[in-house]
Each structure stands twice: as structure tokens, then as C-alpha cells.
Amino acid sequence: MERRKEFTRRALMLGAGKVFVFGVLASRLAYLQVIEQKKFQMLSDKNRISLRLLPAQRGEIMDRFGVPLAINRQDFRAFLVPEQSNNVEDVIARLSRLIPISEDEKKEILFGIGKHRPFMPILVKENLTWDDMAKVELNLPDLAGVSMAEGQIRSYPLGAATAHIIGYVGRVSKVELTNDPVMSIPGFRIGKTGVEKKYDTVLQGEVGRIQAEVNVVGREIRELTRTESKKGHRLTLTLDAGLQMQCQEYIARETSAAAVVMDVNNGEVYALCSHPSFNPNLFSSGLPADLWEELLANPAKPLNNKAVAGQYPPGSTFKMVTALAGLESGVMDASTRVYCPGHYILGKSKFHCWKSQGHGSVDMVTALRESCDTFFYEIGKRVGIDGIAKVAHRLGLGERLGFDVPGESRGMMPNRAWKRKRYGQKWQQGETLISAIGQGYVLTTPLQLATMTARLVNGGKAVKPILVRSIEDEGNKIHEWSSMGFRKAHLDFIRKGMMEVVNDRRGTAYSSRLSEEPYSMGGKTGTSQVRRITQAQRDAGIKNEDLPWKFRHHALFVGYAPVDKPKYAVAVIVEHGVGGATAAAPIARDILLAVQKRDPRKNRTVDIPKEEKSL
Amino acid sequence: MSMGSSIGQGHLSVTEKLMLISWPFLLLLVMVAGVGFISLYSAAGGNIDPWAGKHAVRFALGMCGIIVVSLIDIRIWMKLAYPIYVLGIALLIYVDIRGHIGMGAQRWISLGFLQLQPSEVMKIALVLALARFFHGSTVEDVRNPLFLLAPLVLVGLPAMFVMFQPDLGTAMTILMVATAIFFLAGVSYWMFGVVLAGGVALLPVAWHFLHDYQKRRVLVFLNPENDPLGAGYHITQSKIALGSGGITGKGFLQGSQSHLNFLPEKQTDFIFTLFTEEWGLVGGISLMALFAMIIVYGYFIAMNCQNKFARLLSMGVVVNFFVYIFINMGMVMGLLPVVGVPLPMISYGGTAMLSVMFGFGLLMSAHVHRDIKFTSG
């Protein structure tokens, strides 16, 4: 019986151990299922649901009349599901006999296959034509794992004419890569330049999402929810496609040029061109490397949007600024006269007028008309650089205008404080003189010059260039601009001078006057030095056009039309075009004639119902 | 070997024996097997095939087996104890040799309708043999270390063969069950102390003999999050499935982890995970309560036996059952390394269930013949 008791005692001890173990197991279960439940629930959901994104169609870009500038064209794409083909390389080789696949592309495809799970389709080739598609479809039995699908590719109907302003889309580069899962969509493209870049988020739309239940290897078992993608917003620009093409054609007469046409009252930009240009359609389908090299190597810089990014000394087109500064500051009036002997003496320095024999005694209107440098040296000296700079800024120079295209340059409007800060040196009076005729440190963009002109001729309203008319159907914003407070009489004097530049026999641009009734225009020529003219060149009488292209003067013209009630402002720059009157003025004239004939301000009825509603 | 005198129920008729069978205990088994059935039904995505149906059939066969075994006189079982043990060892040697000859680490013998795992058979065979051995021992015998050499060999042989298979989980189970029987047989406490100390001292040596994958399992067990897609995958996924079940579970057939194949071995070793993912803490605790009731019931049966063999045998069967549960649950909840031990009566797998049920048959035989007193000669 002692043994029996001992057995019972030991059995109970063992039992106590079991109770303890069960207690531990139960506590562990409770711990996992109650206290840590939330954490595991989350992990479990993550395990189970995979998110697949559906690309959204990009919004179109239209001109003010509904002419398409950027659209989506249907294309065909070839995909390959690696697990469905026994020999991937063999299939690609056979496919490349039907559609062109370069060695680089082959490498990229094989790399892509290595990165993804074998049931994920890999993009083999996009931008295929219907014929390509038909060829592949016909041979599908021999191409295990290959499938064709429709896709969308961005297309720019106006091609090179709108390349700079609309920009183009392209594959996401490493620098642009963010955490946004949208970027992982095969073949996803992002706005690279121009409006495509600036309004990328508006145009992109909202991607659709498929939530799918997946198994442990990530294969989809079934769709749980599906949110369709939402197309991006349609963007209507202020541009007039017809005018844009004409302008592009006009500036294409020169090697390198840019032009901006805008409304003087509401700031709407009707045309903005830069030449030489490029074909943006090549970018959206994948640009061949040699073509890219060529574009980069071209000295005329086809990829640069010179209208907004190019910075040029404004030359004589700046004289209106000096004149207005003189009038506003009271150091001169309309009757103030200065004698021009062909040069101006300041201390020991001699400042030349472009007309070496001199203009004689000139007043302001005459000085503008004949572009007398001496007169503006004198006015500049009287006003001082800070006074000139203040007026220049009010007219939109030396600062960014907040234009709707990326890459806008600031230009340069120097003053005393700037020079002290930049160079640690005192401002020299001689620098004021050359600044007064738009040389020296002064730099402007064609967009700024057009804006300046608009502000001068619209009665002094602080207009800014506008490019986007409406997003989707939100309706057009009518831009009202407030007055900058210049005296009307002063602006009228300046306009008179600009009118005479073109319409007076003695004006520098008389040869480019508008003779066709009832059209008229005014403006100002400008020729800006790229390089200082040396005394030796002056003595030898070397003509600027004999120098190598890149050392020749820039030719500029700013203008407006019509004369009596200005509606349009234009700025034209011909890089190294030698003379404003000879190279830039004729282009400006043609543009101003074209714009008056087209009269894009008028709300024309166009055969696009949607546009009618929004107009 | 001669049997001692017998009193009381020495010559019961079959009907009398059937009356003595504890039917409530068998009902508990039915309930546990029922949990197994619905879990396997769910594991197959709501299908009887391929697991739930077979499980039910095997259980039914097992129940018949329990009844047949329980009707056989406990003294006959005592006579058969050593022959069964020898047969078990022979089978173990057979699979080990066959494995070395080149059929891989196959641990079973195919009998057509069932794949017999000798190591599972061995567990019950060892319990029988040890109970048989200690049945005749006196208090003085078990205090003598030399007397214990023979039972140590009885334990050591199968443990070694199983270890070589290699099947760490079963080897551990064998050692734990054997230790419990030694303890119940009255072996001095200090001897356990010595063995424990020796075991700890030998750990580094044992580590050296482990296979790489076994070492990895132990390391991963110690820190599963380090290797979520590799060897730690099982534990991590099991914890996710289990934990995400919460108090009330995701509902029958709604266990996303299990159904989406995130859970490995869901029909065998990880069946408890599937069950608790779908039935939550409530289900898990209920199942544990069922197990606990079976164990407590087994205790009562053991306590009421009038002879030592039956007592030790009953306790051995109960401890064996308990060790299965402990190792399996501890494993799926991340408390123990993944060693491949099924959850008895729930996991799919023929031998484990039949071996456990054979054990319960012996338990029932001990119960039916509880009043027989005998001593071995």
C-alpha cells in the first residue's frame, strides 16, 4: 500500500506539471489571439491582399479653339508571360523576326524577367502598328507566352511647332522616382518638360486599383474590389494652334530664334515658339540614342525653350524703360532735348552712339524712333541705376512671371545693392549708361519683353502671361489686372515713340511697316552686343555680319498692334541675327499681321461642342 | 513467466466487459475527432476529400480497435508487452536500414491502406515494455541504479533509432514519456537530478551531432523573425494565422491564411493553427478543455487500477497523449522548435491516430480489468 500511495503522490505531481503546461499553452494562445491580435490581423491582411494598379488615360491638351495639341493614340503592345513559354530567349528571337527588337531591348526584357515573378507579364515591345500586331497574332501558336494588348501612346499632332511649350512625356528616370506606386505600372510615363511637366498631376488622372486575393507566391486567386481608373483632366490652353504654326514657320527663317505673342489686356499667350525645334513624338515612343546626341550637340540648342529660358541683353528695346523712368522720376519731360554728336563723354570715357556721325539735338520721341543711344546715356545718368531698375521690375523685367511652363529664367536687372553683394564692388556710373541702353549686366527673356511691351501699351496694367485657359470644364478665368500707377501721359509719349519707329520714314523699322489696310503696328528694334566691339574693329570698319555666327549681335524686336487700340504684344529675338531692324522686325511684322487677321481674341465659334460650352 | 492469482473479474463475459467500458470517455474521443474532421474539411477548402473523409473512416476503425483491445484481458497484454516491443524495434531497424540503402529518409512502411510509421508504434510499445518491467520491481529495486540499466536500454534503443531516422520530435517524445514512467515507478528524485545535469552538460555534444537543418530549426525557433521567408517562415506564418483569428475567430471556412496556402502543413502539424484561426480563442480553449478532460479521465482510470502494470500502462498512455499535445501546440504557437509532431486525433495522418487510439484501447482494457490483481513471477 505504501507503493500505491507513492504512485498516487507522484501521479499528482506529474498532474500538477501538466496543469502548469496547459496553463502556459492557454496563456500563450490568449496572448497571441487577444493582445497581439491587431498586429497579426494587419499582417494577415497584408498577406492576403495584393494591389494592382490600372493605368489612367492622360488628359488631352487643346488650344483655345479645341484643336488638339496632345492626344492619346492607340498602339499595340506585345507582352510575354515567362512561365508560359518554355524557352524565353527562343521565343524572343522568333518574335524579333516579326517585329524589330534591338539587342538592348532584348537585354532589358531578360533583365525584367529576372526581376519579376514568372506569372507577371513583361512588356516586350510597345508602339506597334496594326500590321505588326497582325503579324504577331498570326504566329501566336509558335510564340508560347506572348500576348498582344492595346495601349495608349502620347501623340502631338503639331509636332515640332508645340514641342517646347507642350513638352513631352517619357519613362520615369531614377531621379524622378518617388514612392508613388503609380510609377511601377509597366510603360508608365511622366511629363518631362513644358505643360506636360507643369500640369503632370492634373493630366495624369487617377489610377484604378484592383484588390486581389493572392496566395503565398503572389498569384491572383480572385479579384476582391476593382476601382476603375479616372482619366486625367483635359487642359485648354490660351494658344491659337494656327498662329503658333505660322509663328514657328516665320522664325524658322533664321538659324535660331524665339517669339512670344500675347494679349496686352488679359495676358493670354497666343503663340510661344522657339527655333530650332524637335519632334516630340519621337520622345514618347522612345528616342534613338544617336538622335538624342545630335540634339544635344547642335549649337542652336533645339531642346531649349528660348522664349522663356533664353536670356539676352535687351539692347535698345530697353530704352522704353529708361524713358519711362526718366519721365516718372521728373528728370526729364517730353520736350527735354539732348545733343548727340555720335558719342557721349563721361569723365575720361567715351560712349558711342550706334550712329557715329550723331543724331544732333533729339527729344524723347525722336530718340526712341531713331534709337539714339546718347539721349538715353544722358537720361540714364540723370535717373541713376536704382531708378531704372525699379521701373524695369515694375514692367516685369528681372523677375520670374510665374508662367505655366517650367524652366522660366529670371533675367537680370542690376542695381547698386546687387553689385555690392555680387562682386563686393561699388557701382560705376559708366555701368548705368550701358544699362540704360539695355547692355551690360541687363538680361531679359523674350517672354519678359513681351510682357513689358504689353504693360507699356495697355495703359499700365500689371498683366502677366497666361497659358492655361481652363482645366476640364471649369470655365475660363477672365484675368483682370490692376494698374501699376504710371501716368497715362508718360505712357502715351512712349507709345508715340514706338509708333514712329515703324510708321515714320525716319524710324529704324520703317522698312518693316504694315502697309496692308486696316492693319497697323508699333514697336522698337533692338540690337544687343554679344561681345564688346573693340576699338580695332571700329577702326577697321569690320561689319558685325562678317564675324563668326556666335559672335554676331542678337537681333530683337518688341511690338504691338493695332496702333490706336493695342490688343497684341509681340517679342522676337533672333540669336546672332546682327540687326533688330533687319532680322527681327520683319518676323514681328508678319506675326502681328497674322495675329490681327486671325484675331484670336474674338470668341470664334468652332465645331467642337464641348468647347462651345466652355467658351 | 507465470501469472499470479486473480480475484474478482478474472472471468468476465464479453457482455459484462462491454458494460464496463467507459462510454463517456469514448464520447470525448468522438468529440475531439469531430474537431479534427471539421478542421480537415476546412483545410480542403470545404471538401470531404482528400482528408476529412479518410480521417473519419480511420477514426471509426480506431474506435472498433479500442473496443476490441479493451475486451482483451490486461494480463494477455502484459504477456505481449515484450514481443510488441521487439517487433517495434525490428520495424525501426528495418526503416533505418532501408533508408541507408538509398530510399531517402522514409520513415514509414506502406501497408497499402495506411503508411505505418514504426516510430509511432514504438511509443506505445515502449510504454507497454516499461510498464511490464516495473510491474515486478520492488521499492528497493528501483532505488538501485544497476537495476535501472535494463529499462534504460529499453528506452535508449528506440530513442537512438528514431534519432537516426532522423526524427527529433519523436525522439523527444519517447524520452519524455519514458522519464514520466520512471518517475511514476518510484525512481529516486536524485537520479533525475543527475540525469538532468548530465543532459545539460552533454547539450553541446548533442548539438554537434544534429543535422544542419535541425540546428537551423532550433536557431530559427530562437529568433524566427530573422528569417521570415526561409526556415522561420512556418513559425511566423503560423503565428500570423493564429493571432489574426482573435477571440471569436474568422469563422468556419474563412481562415484566409490557411486557405491561401500561407500556412504550411495545414492538414497535419499545423492543423491547430487552422482551427484557431477559424474558431478563435474560444475554439482553441474549448479544444484544450476537451484534451484536459481526456487526460483527467485517464488519471482516474489509472488511479483505480488494482495492479501496477495497468496503472503504469494507463499513465504512460495518458502522458504520451499529453506530450503530443504539448509539443504540437507549443510548436505552432512559437514556444517550441518546429519538430514535426502531429496533434493527436486532429491532424491528418494514419499511424499517429491509430497508435494513440491503440493506447486508449489499452487504457480502456486497464479500466475494464481494473479489479484484477496480479503480480509477475
List the helices and strands and how they pair.
The complex is a heterodimer of chains A (615) and B (377).
Chain A: H1 2-35, H2 37-48, E1 49-54, E2 61-62, E3 68-80, H3 88-95, H4 103-115, E4 122-128, H5 130-138, E5 146-155, H6 163-166, E6 169-171, E7 189-191, H7 194-198, H8 200-204, E8 208-214, E9 220-227, E10 235-237, H9 241-251, E11 257-263, E12 269-275, H10 280-284, H11 289-297, H12 306-309, H13 319-329, E13 338-340, E14 343-346, E15 349-352, E16 360-362, H14 364-370, H15 373-383, H16 385-394, H17 416-423, H18 429-436, H19 446-457, E17 468-471, H20 488-503, E18 522-528, H21 535-540, E19 554-561, E20 568-574, H22 580-598, H23 609-614
Parallel strand pairs in A: 2-10
Antiparallel strand pairs in A: 1-8, 2-3, 3-4, 3-5, 6-7, 8-9, 10-17, 11-12, 11-20, 13-16, 14-15, 18-19, 19-20
Helix pairs in contact in A: 9-22, 13-15, 13-16, 14-20, 15-18
Chain B: H1 14-20, H2 23-43, H3 52-71, H4 74-103, E1 109-110, E2 115-116, H5 118-135, H6 139-143, H7 149-164, H8 168-184, H9 189-209, H10 212-222, H11 233-245, H12 256-259, H13 271-304, H14 308-332, H15 350-368
Helix pairs in contact in B: 2-3, 2-13, 3-15, 4-5, 4-7, 5-7, 5-8, 5-14, 5-15, 7-8, 8-14, 11-13, 13-14, 13-15, 14-15
